[in-house]
Structures are given as structure tokens and as C-alpha cells.
UniProtKB/TrEMBL annotation:
This is PAS modulated sigma54 specific transcriptional regulator, Fis family. InterPro entries: AAA+_ATPase, AAA_lid_NorR, GAF-like_dom_sf, Homeodomain-like_sf, HTH_Fis, P-loop_NTPase, Sigma_54_int, Sigma_54_int_dom_ATP-bd_1. Residues 283-513 form the Sigma-54 factor interaction domain. It comes from the Bacteria. It comes from Desulfitobacterium chlororespirans DSM 11544. SUPFAM superfamilies: Homeodomain-like (SSF46689), P-loop containing nucleoside triphosphate hydrolases (SSF52540). PROSITE patterns: SIGMA54_INTERACT_1, SIGMA54_INTERACT_2, SIGMA54_INTERACT_4. GO terms for biological process: regulation of DNA-templated transcription. The lineage of its organism: Bacteria, Bacillati, Bacillota, Clostridia, Eubacteriales. It holds the Pfam family AAA_lid_14. One of its GO terms (molecular function) is sequence-specific DNA binding. Keywords: ATP-binding, Nucleotide-binding, Transcription, Transcription regulation.
């Protein structure tokens, strides 16, 4: 069992008083020199207990380790001053009312920030034992801890009461570990929130604070351009110094109008983001199949498990992926999407994993941040994953196993914390049988499979979706009160939607544009292929029906009557509208209907 397995247990509600009792029993077994059950105690905590024993640290010692050395105090104060901008930003951006916020150096010197008077503690593993900080600093990854996992349980309880913690390491401009940030709290149910919040705080430091401070603007720009949210950085004088590509698209403004000349002269002091990702509320449909897919996705959204979304083109796979991200505790982190089928095979590796400067001919100056690293702390969505080259599948499998990514041309592995959602329209197991996809990767990424039904299998949703698109299009084209004629509705219902929801959306936009100044959408406003399909299908049905009910007037006459009946049904019995659609006058329709009445009598 690993620490991330514990996080999943927290997610599924399996961490409770009964589990804490088991952990406490295992702690007692360890102190007695007996074997510890690794299915109860994650390996990272057990390894720390072993290191504490090797330090000859007394687990029952109640001494508080206060730092008295003036040089150590001066060093910590200088550290705090150095990162003052960052620390102030944390208190301004995050709601820490339920937490105690602590900064700790790599050597273990720590202080509860925002507290006075200044009391420095020696919280190193050698003096304080197993803590979330000792795990985070030793493993160089975010960590969480509950009361029973502390090596010095009695010491912690005596001095701080029932307290739990979450920590995440921070690094300098050379990616060297310099310490960690810690959130302490009294209620275990805050653990997931604390873990994700402290991970995000550390990520902001590593990816934003240092690049801004040391002028690594190219690296910062690459990270921001990976994000699907619109981001603008500006000065106190309300001058926009930088816009990422998404913000430019959202505001429909030119790049040269957004980037000020003073970007290199002053630090941005605010960041504004606009999140236009989909949520589950955006997913419309009352059919049992779409409701099943939606319910499954909602249940697994706030977990750590990888998700595979299966469905034909146009069924809304990325919409579901965004909704899952937005409903999870990672919603504050990035959502990074990449379509593996839209990128040439030889470029997939550099897009996913990034590269160092000079890694290959044509490599950009300063290198490139890969999509996996950019998604750390959030969600990575890999669409058309079946198109990923086999060599990159192997590298992705390693990232998922080690939670570390290595850029092309680099010898270092960077820790990443990514939730993977992938999507496909093919049978990946069949692909595996044909040696086109790795079977071990399939099972790694498909803990849960959400299957999206094609539109032809959810006919009860077609008109509902059409009405939804009309509402959007009314706003886009400054229209109002657009309705749908019966012939228009029948054509939508009878058509075989090969392009699924996406094709329906495009058909509705085509119709609204062709509507011109009219207010009612007619059959003639739809794309020709949908009109032709409807008319041909209607003719075939009428002929088949006439052949089944042949009478003395003959097939042609009966088919003519059936056509008139169909058109009248489509226009809700309006004789004038039916005559216009059929290209005949009203008198002819009355005569044909009278003949039918005579036949029936």
C-alpha cells in the first residue's frame, strides 16, 4: 500500500475511526519490534518510522524542540523575507480560516505563519519524527498525515491536540528542494481539501513565483498557453501585460493589443481567469442511456481513478471529461486536453513530455513544458488515445506508474500529480490483439469506462437538444422567439445522425442562418442531405404503406392520399400550409380528401 492508496481510501470514505484503530495497533506493533501490516500502513510512513528508529528517536519523549540558535533564526527570517510576495499572495488568494499555515525549510526549521510571537521549531524528522513534512521532504512529493501516523504521537497530542497535516515541497529556480508548505487542521474530513490546496500552493510557487522573479517569462508563457482558461496579467495601473492564447480567443482581440512593452520591467500583481469548461449541468438529455453515463461520471468525478470515455465522434467525450474535472477536488487545477489523433506521430512525444533546449534539431530556445507537466495538480485529457504511437504508450505507462515525467534531452524526472481521463472511439482490446495498443496500458487507464450513446439511440433527446441549440443561437445571432415547424421536427427525428450531437448542432446553426428574417424553422432551412433523407424516407414509407392497403383506386392514388395525410400531420392540419408544401392548391387537397371519405364509406 502506498500513500496515494490512502488518498483513494479517503475519497471513498474508508478512513474512519475503525481504520484509525487499526493504524494505532500497527504503531504499537512497530514499537514492540513486530511486523507491520503494509495493507494498513502505507509504505512511505513505515519507511519514516524505520528512519526514526534508526535516529534512536524516543517515541514517548514529550520535549518541544525549540530553535534557540541565532544564526538559524536569522536564516529562517531571511527565507521568509525572500518569499514575502509569495506568502502574502497565499493569504490573499486562499481561504485558510480552517487551517494553520506553516513554512518549513529543508533542514526542518519551521514557523506557523501569521502567528506571533516568533517561535521557531525544529520539525526535522530526526527531532520531531514522522510528519507530513518529513514525508514530503524525503519523498519530494505532496503528503498527508493523520494523528495515528505520527511517530511521536503523545508529543503531538500533548502540544497540539488532535491535529492532522498536509504538506507539499517547494523548489528554487534550479528545481532544488528548499523546503515545504504545510496546512494543519483539527478535523480529518478536511484532509482532501488540505491536500489539494497545499499541492496547488506549492505548484504556484514552483511554476509561477520563481519564473516571474527570475525573468523566466518564456517558461511561464508556455505553461499559461497550455491552460484552457483565459488568463490575463496586469499592473496596478490596469495595463494588461500578458494574455494567454485562450484569453485572446475569448475576447476576440489581437495579440499585439494585449502585450505591453513593460512586461519585463515590472512584476504582474494580479491574475484573472475565466473558466468556460463544461459542467454536468451543461449535459442535456432524458434518455436512459445518457442518464446512466452521466450518473456514472458524477459518481467517479471526485476520485483519483483513471477514466476511459468511449463513444463515437460527436457524442460529447470532451464535454464529459471537462464536467468530471469540474466536479472533482481538482477543479481549481488545470484541465489540459490533447488530441493524439490531430498531432503527427513524431510530435506526440514532445507535446506530452516536453523537451530541454537543444534536445534535437529545431528545438525551441528555452525548451518546452510538456502537457503532462502542465497538467500537474489537475486533469490531463487524452482524446483519440488509440492514435498514440506505441513508444509513447510505454513512456505514458511509466509516468502513470512512477508519477514522474522526464523531458526529452533531460536526465531529471519531475514529480507530477495528474488525474488521467482518456477517450476513444475504437475497441482498444481489439487494437491490443492486433498489437496496435498496449494491453497493460489499457487496463491502467480504464479503471472506469463511461460509454456515451450515439444520438440515434437517444431519439427522445433530439428535440430537447435542438431547443437548447436554438437558445444559444438566438444569443449568438441576436434573434428571438425562433420555433420549429412540424416538418422540421419530423426531419430531425427521422434522420440517422452519423455525426451525432455535433452534426445536430451544425445542422441547427445552418438552419438558423438560412432562416433569414422568418421566425419558424422549416424543412427547407436544413442542410440538403437531411432534407433529401427525410423526403426519400417518407416516400418509401408511403409506398410500403400503400402496397399493404391496395384499393380500387390503385397504388398511385392511395400513395397520393398518404402523402397528403403526412403533410397535413406535419403542419398540424393547416390546409394552406400543406398546399404550399405540396405545390398544389387548396381545392385539390379538399377534393382528394373527399375522395378518401367516399372510399372509406
Amino acid at each position: 500500500m502506498q500513500m496515494y492508496d490512502l488518498l483513494q481510501m479517503i475519497q471513498f470514505g474508508e478512513v474512519n475511526s475503525r481504520y484509525f484503530t487499526k493504524v494505532n495497533d500497527q504503531w504499537n506493533r512497530f514499537q514492540e519490534g513486530r511486523e507491520v501490516d503494509n495493507s494498513v500502513v502505507p509504505q512511505e510512513y513505515l519507511d519514516s518510522w524505520k528512519r526514526c528508529r534508526a535516529y534512536r528517536l524516543d517515541p514517548y519523549d514529550l520535549t518541544l524542540s525549540v530553535v534557540e540558535n541565532p544564526k538559524q533564526k536569522e536564516f529562517f527570517l531571511n527565507t521568509v523575507k525572500k518569499y514575502e510576495f509569495y506568502l502574502q499572495s497565499v493569504f490573499e488568494i486562499f481561504d485558510l480560516s480552517d487551517f494553520l499555515f506553516k513554512l518549513q525549510t529543508r533542514d526542518g526549521i519551521c514557523q506557523l505563519l501569521g502567528q506571533s510571537p516568533l517561535t521557531l521549531m525544529d520539525c526535522s524528522e530526526k527531532n520531531s519524527g514522522t510528519t507530513s513534512s518529513s514525508i514530503a521532504l524525503y519523498e519530494d512529493k505532496p503528503a498527508v498525515i493523520f494523528q495515528p501516523f505520527y511517530y511521536r504521537q503523545t508529543y503531538v497530542r500533548k502540544n497540539f491536540g488532535e491535529i492532522h497535516g498536509a504538506s507539499a515541497p517547494i523548489h528554487n529556480e534550479k528545481n532544488e528542494l528548499i523546503g515545504d508548505v504545510v496546512l494543519l487542521y483539527h478535523y480529518p474530513e478536511l484532509s482532501l481539501q488540505a491536500f489539494h490546496m497545499v499541492s496547488l500552493i506549492a505548484k504556484i510557487f514552483d511554476h509561477l513565483y520563481w519564473p516571474l522573479t527570475f525573468g523566466h517569462e518564456r517558461q511561464l508563457e508556455q505553461i499559461m498557453n497550455c491552460l484552457p482558461q483565459g488568463i490575463a496579467l496586469g499592473s496596478k495601473k490596469e495595463t494588461i501585460n500578458f494574455c494567454n492564447e485562450k484569453m485572446v480567443d475569448l475576447l476576440e482581440i489581437r495579440k499585439k493589443q494585449n502585450t505591453g512593452q513593460g512586461r519585463k520591467k515590472s512584476l504582474p500583481v494580479f491574475m484573472k481567469a475565466q473558466n468556460d469548461l463544461y459542467t454536468f449541468n451543461h449535459i442535456k438529455g432524458k434518455s436512459p442511456l445518457i442518464q446512466k453515463a452521466k450518473n456514472t461520471a458524477e459518481k467517479i468525478a471526485d476520485t483519483y481513478v483513471p477514466v476511459m470515455i468511449y463513444g463515437e465522434s460527436g457524442t460529447g467525450k470532451e464535454m464529459f471529461a471537462q464536467a468530471i474535472h469540474n466536479a472533482s477536488s481538482r477543479s481549481g487545477g488545470p484541465f489540459i486536453a490533447i488530441n493524439c489523433g490531430a498531432i503527427p506521430g513524431e510530435l506526440v512525444e514532445s507535446e506530452l513530455f516536453g523537451y530541454e533546449e537543444g534536445a534535437f534539431t529545431g528545438a525551441s530556445k528555452g525548451g518546452k513544458v510538456g502537457k503532462i507537466e502542465a497538467a500537474s495538480g489537475g486533469t490531463l485529457f487524452l482524446d483519440e488515445i488509440e492514435s498514440m504511437p506505441l513508444k509513447d504508450q510505454i513512456k505514458l505507462l511509466r509516468v502513470l506508474s512512477t508519477r514522474k515525467v522526464q523531458k526529452i534531452g533531460s536526465t531529471k524526472e519531475v514529480p507530477v500529480n495528474v488525474r488521467l481521463i482518456s477517450a476513444t472511439k475504437t475497441d482498444l482490446l481489439q487494437q491490443a490483439d492486433e498489437s496496435l495498443f498496449r494491453e497493460d496500458l489499457f487496463y491502467r487507464i480504464s479503471t472506469f469506462i463511461v460509454e456515451l450513446p450515439p444520438l440515434r439511440e437517444r431519439k427522445e433527446d433530439i428535440i430537447l437538444l435542438a431547443e437548447e441549440f436554438i437558445q444559444r443561437l438566438e444569443k449568438r445571432y441576436s434573434r428571438s422567439s425562433i420555433d420549429m415547424d412540424w416538418s422540421f421536427i419530423n426531419a430531425l427525428l427521422s434522420y440517422k445522425w452519423r455525426g451525432n450531437v455535433r452534426e445536430l448542432e451544425h445542422a441547427m446553426e445552418h438552419a438558423v442562418i438560412m432562416l433569414d428574417k422568418q421566425s419558424s424553422l422549416l424543412l427547407e432551412h436544413l442542410p440538403e442531405k437531411i432534407q433529401d433523407y427525410y423526403l426519400n424516407n417518407t416516400t418509401e414509407e408511403i409506398i410500403e404503406e400503400a402496397m399493404e392497403h391496395e384499393n380500387k383506386f390503385g397504388l398511385l392514388a392511395l400513395a397520393e392520399q398518404k402523402m397528403i395525410e403526412r403533410v397535413l400531420d406535419s403542419v398540424d392540419g393547416n390546409i394552406s400550409a400543406a398546399a404550399e408544401q405540396l405545390g398544389i392548391n387548396r381545392r385539390t387537397i379538399y377534393r382528394k380528401l373527399q375522395r378518401k371519405e367516399n372510399l372509406d364509406s
